[in-house]
Design a protein that fits this description.
By secondary structure, the chain is mainly alpha-helical. The protein has one domain. Helix content is 45%, strand content 9%. The chain has a two-stranded antiparallel ribbon with strand order 1-2.
Length: 47
């Protein structure tokens, strides 16, 4: 379910952010403020 929500966010964001979202997926945390996750607002990893 979380992944479905992530896909919706990615679709809304558009292609310009694809690279950032791909990074998020690679980090294995598709949609959460968790250790090692990707902070898409500040464009950095959560510590």
């Amino acid at each position: 379910m979380a992944f479905d929500a992530f896909i919706q966010i990615a679709d809304i964001a558009g292609e310009a952010l694809d690279e950032k979202y791909n990074k998020w997926i690679v980090d294995g945390t598709a949609g959460g403020n968790v250790t090692g996750g990707w902070d898409r607002i500040n464009n950095k990893k959560y510590s």
